[in-house]
Amino acid sequence: MKHSPRTSLIFLFLTALVMSCSENMDLPDSGGNTNTGINRDTDKYVAISPDWTFSDLGLVTPLDIYASKDGRLYIADSSQNRIRVIRPSGEIESGIYDTLDNLPLKPTAVCLDARFNVYYVDNGNKVYVWPQFSAATGIEGIVTGRYYNDNGTPVLMDPRSGLLSGLRAIPYSEIVDTTLTDVIDSLVAPHVFYDPLSERNRLGTTDPVNREALSGRPVYATVSKSFVALAPASESNRAIYVMDAVNNEILKVRLIPTLMVKLKNGQLIWHYEGVLDRFVATAGTGAGTVAQPLSLASDNSGNVFYTQTGDFFSVHKLNGSTYESGFLVGIHDIMNLGEFGYARDISTSSEGNIFVLDTLDRDVKMYAPTGDFLKSVVVREEWIRLTDSSYVNDTLVVRDTLVLQQYPDLLNNPLALTVYNDVIYTLDNGNFRILRFTKVDDVVIDNPDREE
């Protein structure tokens, strides 16, 4: 059954008027001496003003939003052929971020990994990347060779072969070619990251980090695909997740080191090509299967979450270690039939709470990491005071109750959300704005008539 976001009753204070002897019972105080009269809501969210308008942010048709670990917001604006980058203050980023303006495609989804690589798709058959860290720091040159210690003997190899050998690199022994300007320019510009038709994806390759063979996927390379959503894997996994809406599959695409570069700050880092590791979820109608998928997310524990419109369940979780279903029908609220009107997007908080943007119900439904429903947020709330009286043992008792009334009338055709540092950012496309709601811990709602 769908949870109603509209009304919840919270008993806040009790006033007893003893008519026969004209005595009043003391009202509860706010010091926590009694549970009566106090509501402590550890999941209270309030709106942040002002709203961010699309026009002020230079947005026209934003379809996706993602918060990086430094708090910057990356917004895929399809009609503008850009990914707009916004600081937490609402200031539009420029400088190197202008690289994401005037892209040769219409981005529809975006995410970042722990290496600050920006990944994006356009509902097509490729995944693109912009290596932001390299672009911001600058590349001094390409590392064409390093010396490795082979039982005390220095051996010169290219870095990829050195990884495959398992030998330890000798510090500061790298040979750097600073003349390969065309290669450097191509690395710091947006470019294709994962192409199913590439040689490594068709024929297979070896991951030089752990010397593991990855099988080629010649059949998958030739079928039609539509990559509609992205999410990063954990940093140790060295991968991203890609959602294919045509084939109803979720792919784990591994980052395979290809070139080592030396940055202008002296740091050595790898650049990568995406190679298909495995399908973590395939077509079906049961828990942990995919049917007409919409959105994709992950959490700090490596778990994968996604929403869809096909039968039978709107929201799924895959455990990051096994990729088996993390939610079960009849046990977890989030898997209830009819739980959502239209689960358009999903995000997680640092505490592991799950937020589902429901476009039809015009709210964001908040769930505990266990899948238990907590409350609806990004809705308008009003407290209504109701007074009633009754006789208890010939004594007239007057009870005042505050009723929390929720009105899902803030959102109009919302399309995406992201959560960062207890702030919910929602693309409210029908009203051409971004709504921000922040968490307020331990809110105390006390007797409104209490005298200090």
Q: What's a quick, concise take on this entry?
A:
The protein is mainly beta and 452 residues long.
What is the count of DSSP helices, taking H or I runs of 4+ residues? 6
* DSSP strand tally: 35
Secondary-structure class: mainly beta
Rounded to an integer, what's the Rg over CA atoms?
27 Å
What percentage of amino acids are in beta strands?
A: over 45%
So what's the overall shape? elongated
DSSP helix fraction:
under 10%
Q: pLDDT below 50 for ≥5 consecutive residues: which ranges?
A: 6-38, 445-452
Distance between the termini: 44 Å
Note the main sheet. 8 strands, antiparallel
Average the pLDDT over all residues and give the rounded result: 90
SSE blueprint:
Blueprint: E1 7-18, E2 23-24, E3 39-41, E4 44-47, E5 52-53, H1 54-57, E6 62-67, E7 73-77, E8 82-86, E9 109-112, E10 117-121, E11 127-131, H2 132-137, E12 139-150, E13 153-157, H3 159-165, E14 168-169, E15 175-177, H4 181-188, E16 191-194, H5 199-203, E17 204-207, E18 212-215, H6 218-222, E19 227-232, E20 239-244, E21 249-263, E22 268-281, E23 293-298, E24 304-308, E25 315-318, E26 343-348, E27 354-358, E28 363-367, E29 373-377, E30 380-392, E31 395-407, E32 414-420, E33 423-428, E34 433-440, E35 443-445
Antiparallel strand pairs: 1-2, 1-31, 3-35, 4-34, 5-34, 6-7, 7-8, 9-10, 10-11, 11-16, 12-13, 12-14, 12-15, 12-21, 17-18, 19-20, 20-21, 21-22, 23-24, 24-25, 26-27, 27-28, 28-29, 30-31, 32-33, 33-34
